Amino acid sequence: MPVHFGLDIGSTSIKLIQTEGNRVKVIGIGVNPFGKMISSMTNAEKISLTDILKNLIKESGMRSNKVVASISEAAVFSRVLKFPVMSTPELSTAIKWELDQSVPFPPSDIETSWTILEKPEKFEGNEKISVYVVAVPTSISEIYVQMLELIGLELLRLENEIPALNRTYAPLLNDDSPAAILDLGAGGTNIVISGKNKIFSSFYIPVGGSALTKLIAEAFNLPIDQAESYKRTYGLANDQMEGKLVSVLKPVIDNIIGELRKLMIAYKDEHQNSLVNKLILSGGGAYLIGLIPYLSESLGGVEVVLGDTFANMAVDTKYKTLGPVFSVANGLSQ
């Protein structure tokens, strides 16, 4: 792929990064003031966002005009599907049929890509082909293309977040003993069971950091900015605010843990001799005070680590502690 940079436009922040080996060549972060994804913006908001993007690119010193951009899991259908062993043409037909049943858009209105993750070396009758399938509504992908073209960028690829996360954390992953990745974004949460070269399963929850802030605001009758400050300052610390903040956040966190457990159990059922024994935290929500010990206690036996994208990379000290925030953007840049 040509030299390019990764661009991750989240619902509250915009990250861009260009890497060269283990060195971060160009990096920048800015605010998305609209608190929503591009596909949900009005035309006026999209126009304003193009100006924000243009300024961020200029201020970062980015010279490349070639980009790989992220699209939120909320806007796509992405899933690991399993099929009986069959030829490639038959597999293509089977995937199309599966999408017709699962995706709420006409086949002519979606763009589809798929990758074979696992194919049995020997065929004894019960083996399955594992395929990672992604479908994006054409109307949404066109918004990204048009917006990026407006500011003079050449979009090489539009990619959903899960493959980018897998690519970023590949050095920490092992196909024989995969890890779970918990990507806590502002608008939603991605859960992935991932090996170094394989995605075993994934799940998207449309609840993220912004929803937690809103819950705090409603529970304590606070303005949003003050609720955000409370969340960042106290988090899941039981010894703060008499544990009242924990009681507000805990049901949401427990729901996320419940979905994570389901994926871990499903993996164990399919791979009797392997366990998911590591959880990598990614995204801005990874910094929530008390989250790591809370997850460790809830998932006894699972090692919980902060997913530091920049652990083995040379990067400006200003950004050194923002590794989890740049996890998707970094994956796009590779």
TrEMBL record:
UniProt-listed Pfam families: PilM_2
Record protein name field: Type IV pilus assembly protein PilM
